[in-house]
Amino acid sequence: MENNRPIVIDTNCLVQIISKHSPYRPIWDAFLGKRFILCVTNEILDEYQEIMEIQTSAQIAENVVLLIMNSSNVNYVDPHFRLGLITADPDDNKFVDCAFASGADYIVSEDSHFKVLDELPFPAFNVITMDEFLVKLFP
Q1: Number of domains in the chain
Q2: Residue numbers of the domain that contains 52
């Protein structure tokens, strides 16, 4: 996979990739190595922080979010459209709106709510799992 491809990562995936013992840690290491551009919004950063605080600790959550905010391979997006494409869990739409606004190549998610995007003729979104993203990163 060529460097600097824009990617959106769902919160549940981010929490899994930061663990040193996770089989998905190479995704985090690839981010740190600037192998892709992570696209985020303020809403996404807030959710990253909130969920990581619950699942890890406040200190880890703060450190990860600060690292993301200070990384040169992060694209801060301010979506002007709220597409509202995921009705089963409207909170997931922040990732879809970010992907649409940034022209992201992929949304990395394990959440089944994103499957509805496969049925849309337009706009086209490439939702992939962490396993699929690993294959793209390390063919």
Answers
A1: 1
A2: 5-134
Burial of 18 (0-12, 13-18, 19+ CB in 10 A): buried
- Let me know if 126 is exposed, middle or buried by CB neighbors in 10 A (0-12, 13-18, 19+): middle
pLDDT tens for the chain, 139 residues long, are: 556 899 999 999 999 999 999 999 999 999 999 999 999 999 999 999 999 999 999 999 999 999 999 999 999 998 777 665 565 565 677 888 898 888 888 889 886 555 655 665 556 677 889 999 999 888 8
* Token output for 123: 């706009």
- For the chain, give the longest Cα–Cα distance: 42
Cα first-last separation, the chain: 8
